[in-house]
Amino acid sequence: MNKYTILVVEDDKPVRTLITTTLKANGYRFIEALTGEEAILQATSYNPDIILLDLGLPDMDGVEIIRKVRSWSNMPIIVISARSEDSDKIEALDSGADDYLTKPFSVEELLARLRVTQRRLAMLGAEHADTVFVNGSLRIDYAAGCAYLDGNELHLTPIEYKLLCLLAQNVGKVLTHTYITQKIWGNSWENDIASLRVFMATLRKKLESAPDSPQYIQTHIGVGYRMLKVG
Ligand code: CA
How are the residues of the chain apportioned to helix, strand and coil, as percentages rounded to the nearest 5? Predict the structure, then answer.
């Protein structure tokens, strides 16, 4: 038996059945909610480990649920959205969702996203107040302000280092362009995605052995970036 409990928020019965059948077959415990109101009630009563959240619900916008849950909990939220809800998806990530799945999705994709989130939970639990971040061959010494790859110091510009730390501190989580630009440059650089892309390219050149098939930093086209947990 898997020790994780998943709250499935989805009003569409066939999709909900697909999700719960998959969870059951893979040993997850789950609870279900068909409306936003039910979702918030279930989240507060059962304190699930992960929420799978459909954005289009009959009584409430999924983004509103994310904001409500975030006011008292950091529990991972994976958003499930239809392709027509693309801008909602970005708003959801900016509001604190951890990851997203676009409908239609495969069962394998759903399970992969759950594993990413579980690894992130396990990492956060193990991290404590560590001042050193380790991911595969990458090591960041926050106290010293240095990053190393295979033991060799990476010569990063201050912006590249800030970008790397931001991604590392959110390993496994998709960060939107707006979120990143606001964190790195403040509001004045909001939506300057072209500049972000340039800095990301130079960072990758130093970090990735094959920048065209990156191992550490994954691009989510039109959305943002995510650092993957390696190994
Ligand atoms: Ca729906």
Answer: 45, 25, 30
Beta bridge partners of 61: 56
- Say which amino acid occupies 106: S
Instruction: Compute the distance from residue 4 Cα to the ligand 1 centre, in Å.
Output: 24
More confident residue, 96 or 189: 96
Write down the H helix ranges in 76-192: 86-94, 107-127, 158-169, 177-185
C-alpha 201 – ligand 1 centre gap (Å): 37
* 57 phi, psi to nearest 5 deg: -115, 155
Confidence at residue 32, expressed as pLDDT on a 0 to 100 scale? 97
| Token output for 213 | 């098939």
Contact 62, 92 (CB under 8 A): yes
CB under 5 Å of ion ligand 1: residues? 11-12, 54, 56
pTM: 0.73
79-107 pLDDT per residue, tens: 998 866 678 888 999 999 999 999 889 99
| Torsion region of 117: left, alpha or beta (phi above 0 gives left; psi -120 to 50 gives alpha) | alpha
Beta bridge partners of 147: 140
